Prior knowledge:
By secondary structure, the chain is α+β, with helices and mostly antiparallel strands. Helix content is 25%, strand content 44%. Strand 11 (219-224) and strand 12 form a beta hairpin. The longest helix has 18 residues, at 30-47. It comes from Caldimonas mangrovi.
Amino acid sequence: xxxxxxxxxxxxxxxxxxxxxxxxxxxxxxxxxxxxxxxxxxxxxxxxxxxxxxxxxxxxxxxxxxxxxxxxxxxxxxxxxxxxxxxxxxxxxxxxxxxxxxxxxxxxxxxxxxxxxxxxxxxxxxxxxxxxxxxxxxxxxxxxxxxxxxxxxxxxxxxxxxxxxxxxxxxxxxxxxxxxxxxxxxxxxxxxxxxxxxxxxxxxxxxxxxxxxxxxxxxxxxxxxxxxxxxxxxxxxxxxxxxxxxxxxx
Length: 250
């Protein structure tokens, strides 16, 4: 019986009697330890303000299953499907992204289990808190399958209570910075659209990040569809400082 199947059958007992990832990562078991460290570091980066957890961890063809009986439960096939139907609809209803606090982490072979608490703020100002157990099946330091347990009631309440933003809504004042902004090496192409949306390409990845933005004076605030926020400053009509990088108008 794999660790994952055993956990599904005895999740309450596992949570009631936690043990450290070190205990399950047997001495000399290099793949187990690599998987444990990879997931631990990904959560640490997320907790510290990172915004790329899912891109860092998930394989393109990941199979993500949310256990439960609400409309959000079910299986999502592939990274794009999971982001489009599960992550974006929820994250777009938040004013601050969820940040994790890891309670316990277990690893054995290709399986890594994380028990964590998440907290954020919905767009209507109400706090969101939940506890999660995610079971990762790893292959070459990418999760090819994930089973997720959480309390779906507060998740569904945010979806029901907070209206989804309309893609074409222009929730900003007119400004002179609409257009394409590009780093000097051409690797990041950042387009500020006139409808209050932005679309960012990175290298060969088209639309790597998308969301809404607002300009006030020479400052710009971003709300990405995946849940993170950012800002930038237009130092002049043709120069944007954003994310520690310099963009030029094209």
